[in-house]
Amino acid sequence: MGRMRGLEIPLTQTQKIRLQRALQKLESLSSKANSNASVTVADSIPVNYDDGFLKGHGTSELNGEVIATVCGVVERVNKLVYVRTLRARYKPEVGDIVVGRVIEVAPKRWRIDINFSQDAVLMLSSMNLPDGIQRRRTAVDELNMRSIFEENDVVCAEVRGFHHDGLQLQARSQKYGKLERGQLLSIPPYLVKRRKQHFHYIEEYGIDLILGCNGFIWVGEHAEPKDDMVIDEQANKSDQILKPSKYSMTLEEQERAYTPLETRQNVCRTANAIRVLSTLGFSVTIEIIMDTVTMSMSLKEIHEMLGSEFCVLVAEREAERRSSAKKKG
Amino acid sequence: MEIDRIDGRSPNQLRPLACSRGILNRAHGSASWSQGFPRDTKVLAAVYGPKAGTKKNENPERACIEVIWKPKTGQSGKQEKEYEMILKRTLQSICILTINPNTTTSIIIQVVQDDGSLLPCAINAACAALVDAGIPLKHLAVSICCCLASSGYVILDPTKQEEEGMKAFAYLVFPNSIKLILPEGSSHAQGERMEDGIVTSVTHGAMSVEDYFHCLDRGRAATAKLSDFLRRNLQPQVLADGSKAG
């Protein structure tokens, strides 16, 4: 029985060999000689001293030698040499798209858990009101905060900045806000690279995919961005009942809320694909997710995706893809 | 004269070591270090920081390190305060304090089990936790406990029973040596050794000067094994992340 690199999936002997081979192939592809060497503290970094170079984070000079002050991987960008730590805690930057869960409803704000060392704050004023009008938030709005978000709701927002009481988020556009009818997944944050597009709508499956930079990923049924004009009808109703009760929905609301079985299966497939990729430690991008989902269509049962055979297949497929990409480029 | 140790170890033999990092979710860095099996000394260390602001009497041009020691049972007393102070001085000498001035890094030590050689175990755990948090260090520190028996014999890494029967003992902290990363195919055989130094030494009981130097030598020899273990543990696993190649 083989357990590889912290994977909790028991592998048979042949699967273990195949997986090892695929991973070794990947490692040999990625590290070019010794320039991507991993260092521990007080290791000397091999630098060509004749060319000018700049010392970056995680390095310092001792006796004319460049030594590492943290444990990590040496990175070189033009003349900059720095050490990147591997176990990176999510470090928020302004403008990051993050997905989080509401922990608390506080006066004029919501506290959101985003896998960071402190909770993020979403101010009531940074959130669009349900009726869409831009106006000053009154005390009535403050009392109705629960009708917008409650505890344990999943929310998508953007990082606005660091202020005195912590990390602040904003959700001013229609694509941010409450996320419903889907799954929230948690993966190590360094597997999600910052790209131009974090919102993906996969038409053939009818699902929405949001890759949060903090390692939280949302996979759910596609939700059309609500049009502000249509909200008027709902706002009239909400004057009478402040909070629509979850248990007393009308028949037509229940029909609208029903997700077809096919879409639900696709959501599960995508979620399992992301789980497998994160267990193997591959960085998660939309292309690799779609490739894995297409590959999984050949499996009978969706839960087989979490088994050992599929895991090995994904690793081998990735090794193939990278080696063919290298041959081309 | 040979001493028979209760668990059958030789005088220079250390207990089996185990170290795991990244166990606490909310802390910036965390590590657990245990020595011995099955009855062991286990310490959990968590690092939070750097946070803004230093304490009142501290120099604002340097980073400040704050240590909180939590005993297994009971309230914190004088013994815990002493441990905190020793740990603080030791960690101040291995961290590079000028990188983040006017910040505080908090290190919290929780004793899970105590079976002898507690302070060295805590120092090792704190060092591993600092590495896990990505805080820049000058070098790694490894620490060991040397005891002097009434017969004049020196033994390393005692259990609690052995410790109580000893004439004197010393906790020693040594810096870790620098190694060069060898380029492939290089003819360079050995890395350079950093000058042998000692970071911290805490002694209890009465011992003669020669005995003390004897302890130092034995301790230094044993730290080679400890440093190897620590380095191997800290060697980051290079993930199959091809974004650099592509």
TrEMBL record, chain A:
Subcellular location: Nucleus
Keyword rRNA processing: yes
Keyword rRNA processing: yes
Residues of the S1 motif domain: 93-172
Gene3D superfamilies: 2.40.50.100, Nucleic acid-binding proteins
SUPFAM superfamilies: Eukaryotic type KH-domain (KH-domain type I), Nucleic acid-binding proteins, Ribosomal L27 protein-like
One family name in Pfam for this protein: S1_RRP4
UniProt keywords, alphabetically: Exosome, Nucleus, RNA-binding, rRNA processing
GO molecular function, one term: RNA binding
GO terms for cellular component: cytoplasmic exosome (RNase complex); nuclear exosome (RNase complex)
GO biological process: CUT catabolic process; exonucleolytic trimming to generate mature 3'-end of 5.8S rRNA from tricistronic rRNA transcript (SSU-rRNA, 5.8S rRNA, LSU-rRNA); nuclear polyadenylation-dependent rRNA catabolic process; poly(A)-dependent snoRNA 3'-end processing; TRAMP-dependent tRNA surveillance pathway; U4 snRNA 3'-end processing
UniProt xrefs under SMART domains: S1
Family that this chain belongs to: Belongs to the RRP4 family.
Name of protein: Exosome complex component RRP4 homolog isoform X1
Organism: Punica granatum (Pomegranate)
TrEMBL record, chain B:
A GO cellular component entry from the record: nucleolus
Location in the cell: Nucleus, Nucleolus
Top-level division of the source organism's lineage: Eukaryota
MF terms (GO), sorted A to Z: exonuclease activity; RNA binding
Keywords for this protein: Exonuclease, Exosome, Hydrolase, Nuclease, Nucleus, RNA-binding, rRNA processing
Chief place where the protein resides: nucleus
InterPro entries cross-referenced by the UniProt entry: ExoRNase_PH_dom1, ExoRNase_PH_dom2_sf, PNPase/RNase_PH_dom_sf, Ribosomal_Su5_D2-typ_SF, RNase_PH
Exoribonuclease phosphorolytic domain boundaries: 13-136
Record bears the keyword Ribonucleoprotein: no
GO terms, biological process: nuclear mRNA surveillance; poly(A)-dependent snoRNA 3'-end processing; rRNA catabolic process; rRNA processing; U4 snRNA 3'-end processing
Name of a matching Pfam family: RNase_PH
Signal peptide: none
Family as reported in the entry's similarity comment: Belongs to the RNase PH family.
Name recorded for this polypeptide: Exosome complex exonuclease RRP46 homolog
